[in-house]
Amino acid sequence: PAKKKDIRDYNDADMARLLEQWEKDDEIEEGDLPEHKRPPAPIDFSKIDPGKPESILKLTKKGKTLMMFVTVSGNPTEKETEEITSLWQGSLFNANYDVQRFIVGSNRAIFMLRDGGYAWEIKDFLINQERCADVTLEGQVYPGKGAEENDKGKNKTKPEKAKKKKDADKKSNSIKEDNRATKQREDL
């Protein structure tokens, strides 16, 4: 049997052990569990429209945290971007959408949603704003009202990934052609 200690002599480790003992038999409700430990919500396949892949994404993202990137058109300063996106966040708040906003550049912000099921409704709101250049959601780029005319292709995927892959292929080909150690081995 462990020797009983006076509660005033407890250190942080003793307090942590005591907390573990108290919580050992407690049942944690599903809503209190972290998102990655919660069971996924059941998907009602009758609501899925096969002609709209977005409907599948809406149902699979329901109840999960989701982030979308928003680009402000023109060449705004970080302060202007802060003000514009703050207005958008306020409008979304007034429409009962729980959105957090983080500025990540002079013309770019991240909108974090607690429930990803509403992401496409929020995306529709944002692309109809005058100063919205584009919204990136789940790898898809949706041009906004403020987008330049040559950027208004519908639902472009991120071109960066394809560009990175092409650059990597070029590098690997140039390495294969200019590998001196291999040439010396062949000569031996």
UniProtKB/TrEMBL annotation:
<dbReference type="GO" id="GO:0006457">
    <property type="term" value="P:protein folding"/>
</dbReference>
<dbReference type="GO" id="GO:0050750">
    <property type="term" value="F:low-density lipoprotein particle receptor binding"/>
</dbReference>
<keyword id="KW-0143">Chaperone</keyword>
<dbReference type="InterPro" id="IPR019330">
    <property type="entry name" value="MESD"/>
</dbReference>
<dbReference type="GO" id="GO:0005783">
    <property type="term" value="C:endoplasmic reticulum"/>
</dbReference>
<keyword id="KW-0879">Wnt signaling pathway</keyword>
<feature type="compositionally biased region" description="Basic and acidic residues">
    <location>
        <begin position="146"/>
        <end position="188"/>
    </location>
</feature>
<comment type="similarity">
    <text>Belongs to the MESD family.</text>
</comment>
<dbReference type="GO" id="GO:0016055">
    <property type="term" value="P:Wnt signaling pathway"/>
</dbReference>
<protein>
    <recommendedName>
        <fullName>LRP chaperone MESD</fullName>
    </recommendedName>
</protein>
<feature type="region of interest" description="Disordered">
    <location>
        <begin position="24"/>
        <end position="45"/>
    </location>
</feature>
<feature type="region of interest" description="Disordered">
    <location>
        <begin position="142"/>
        <end position="188"/>
    </location>
</feature>
<dbReference type="Pfam" id="PF10185">
    <property type="entry name" value="Mesd"/>
</dbReference>
<keyword id="KW-0256">Endoplasmic reticulum</keyword>
<keyword id="KW-0732">Signal</keyword>
